[in-house]
Predict the 3D structure of the following.
Amino acid sequence: MQQQLESVHAGRSRSAEPSPFFRLGGSRLMSESPSKTVVGRMSRYLRQVERAMDDGKLTISSRMLSHLMEVSDSQVRKDLGHLTVVGHAGIGFQCSELIDAIKVFLGLKAQWPIAVVGCGNLGQALMGYRGLRERGFPIAAGFDLLPDVINKTYAGIEVFNFAQFASVIAQKNLEIAALCVPPNVGQETADQMVAAGIRGILNFAPVILHVPQSVCVVNVDLTIEMEQLVFAVVQKRDCGL
Amino acid sequence: MQQQLESVHAGRSRSAEPSPFFRLGGSRLMSESPSKTVVGRMSRYLRQVERAMDDGKLTISSRMLSHLMEVSDSQVRKDLGHLTVVGHAGIGFQCSELIDAIKVFLGLKAQWPIAVVGCGNLGQALMGYRGLRERGFPIAAGFDLLPDVINKTYAGIEVFNFAQFASVIAQKNLEIAALCVPPNVGQETADQMVAAGIRGILNFAPVILHVPQSVCVVNVDLTIEMEQLVFAVVQKRDCGL
DNA sequence: ACATGTGAAAAAATTCACAGCA
DNA sequence: TGCTGTGAATTTTTTCACATGT
């Protein structure tokens, strides 16, 4: 829901400059790079299309997708415009093609094995969660500092000493990791992970991580989600619902 | 990450109307109701201000907050304009006042005990997660259908037969719940929860729930977050970083 | 000097509306 | 008729710029 970003602020902007003279004729693909909101919806489209396909559908239209989710049909078409598929007028999109294109878009044609750093409650729950493996994110290794979890296995996943982090991820070729350590050691742990070559961190520790530009962070914080929920509940109550 | 919403669209806007002559009168509070993005940032401000206070700071400025997070200082000021506090020119905001105002805004002055429905891997992890209790969301009860978990306790939390859901939440006065059941029974379980009077659902099941307008849903899906991360990683790699 | 609060400008995201195709 | 793809309009969100206050 947020990421490392530069902080440049170097005066970009200016320019009423209408940009290049010729915007080109019927540009095939949508030039502008997709925003985070688009990427977020893309994942959800993927699930819906997969589900539709499981239900036996061979094609799906933007209208159908918009009914399955909370977006307008024109939004769906705009979003899918970032993909390499084309829809068929009067028909819609071929489910299989669409799934494939979204996977390509998101970078999901390959498996992304992950490391779990911190094997307490949450780390263990992640290791036991089938959903990750099923969607192409098998957990390849756990790491911890406590002797009583090191060398154990959870759901068949081995827990290594965090001291071996660099060598294990190099050997297993891991690029992304879930950070599940207590907040007070979040930053320093992240630093070590980055030094070891990790490229992406799913951060469950309730701290804002500072990482180099080359590393991506996605934060997951349950208590924030809970607070969003509470706000929505209270607001509805206030509206008399 | 999404919610039931109205569809009103009652035409506000219009008005190139340069508005009244005298803008003065310094309207105290910001009229328009806060959008979801604002609410999301509010939770994060809360954490930062709490942290600053723990670090001994008595006041905090929009500039300081903007450095701690990924927002501009004017954004911070606009956001905090939704609150009932006023900042002090030249100084900033009183941390304690600000924390209080954000809590009022978000509805966090009271505790929000929650029910956990589905006590498998994830449900158990939630019950064992201290962070929720610490932020005012103690887990008051678990529910499941399987005899081998019913009547057990996890981290001191009792697991009831889901058949008793309505009576237990009425007795314990629970309004919100975390839904941690397998996707195939997600909707039907939600239906029963709604019928029992639940007002908000933190949905961990990877399905889109259909609920009445009066009920709020916030979805949490780890695999979607993972996909966002992968996209970001691939994109950075493509940019040569 | 440092900050807030806020109109007005700019940018981004979303929706509209319709041409064009099967 | 049913649907895509896309400019243009609209709405929402963010940033700018500055008057005001301490």
